[in-house]
Design a protein that fits this description.
The protein has 287 residues and is an alpha/beta fold. Helix 2 runs antiparallel to helix 6.
């Protein structure tokens, strides 16, 4: 199934709904911390910088420190605003999956959602505001610390933040555990997409859904563009993303066209746990 891409913000009817949800995260809604103290805490994160990370030989330091700290999403806290590198993309993601894919209901009460690559938490905050229990993970420690700081400052009890890699999802506690996995803005950052996607498949319950957003490669064939730039590796074409979903076990797959801003959306369903072909698989013992 192919989903047409959005053209203008007006093509996303649920934008106002999700914008309204962000009102929950104004400075006036803080719990147990004053506005000045809260802003000061965020400024401490914004001042962190490790631009020399690429010279580190220690892999764990690279993963935890990684990039220079940058705020991820546009956020109006009421008394001050922070502009993010991804702008309003956190809103667009949920709009696209609700409006165009029909895979994300407004009311997520009772749902357990894994948000992979949470960054500063724009998507995680929205999912929590919809009522889901959200487990947000990122391999960059300082982003987890920042989101955890916000969760505590706003008294968000249904948001759990973990500093961990996608490739650590093989742990028993993550098996068959989630109703939805949100995998936005991450696929092109990882070197082993098949193993990464299989971890997502395994983390979902039977009947669970993966919602994925990535940069996209414009081609009609199932090909990947090798786009090694800073922290990026591969860009999939729509057909390549469809086949990737299929090969790791997903069914009921929907993939959009590459959007005017070079993004690609897809959604897929885990009907039941099935095995994966293991010829050449880099982790042959993966479940």
């Amino acid at each position: 199934m192919t989903i047409p891409y959005y053209m203008q913000p007006g093509d996303l009817p649920s934008m106002d709904f999700y914008r309204q949800l962000m009102e929950k995260y104004k400075s006036t809604q803080l719990i147990g911390i004053g506005e000045i103290q809260f802003k000061s805490g965020l400024e401490m994160f914004l001042q962190e910088s490790r631009p020399d990370f690429i010279r580190f030989s220690d892999v764990e330091i690279q993963r935890k420190q990684s990039i220079e700290f940058k705020w991820g999403h546009d956020h109006d806290f009421g008394t001050f605003k922070l502009a993010g590198n991804m702008g309003t993309r956190h809103l667009k993601h949920l709009c696209v999956f609700h409006d165009q894919f029909n895979r994300l209901p407004y009311d997520l009460t009772g749902k357990k959602i894994l948000d992979i690559g949470c960054w500063t938490g724009g998507v995680s905050l929205l999912l929590a505001a919809c009522g889901a229990h959200v487990v947000a993970i990122d391999e960059v420690k300082k982003y987890c610390e920042c989101l955890d700081y916000m969760a505590k400052s706003f008294g968000i009890r249904n948001l759990e933040v973990r500093n961990m890699s996608l490739y650590s999802l093989g742990a028993e506690e993550f098996q068959d555990a989630f109703d939805i996995v949100m995998f936005a803005g991450v696929l092109y950052h990882i070197t082993d997409m098949i193993v990464g996607m299989r971890h997502i498949f395994n983390a979902l319950k039977d009947g669970g859904t993966c919602l994925l957003e990535s940069t996209g490669f414009r081609a009609n064939e199932p090909v990947f563009g090798y786009m090694r730039r800073k922290w990026n590796w591969f860009d999939p074409s729509p057909q390549a993303l469809h086949d990737l979903f299929s090969d790791v076990g997903f069914v009921n797959i929907s993939v959009g066209h590459v959007t005017p801003d070079s993004r690609l959306y897809g959604a897929a369903f885990r009907q039941t746990h099935v095995d994966i072909r293991r010829d050449g698989l880099s982790v042959p013992n993966i479940r």
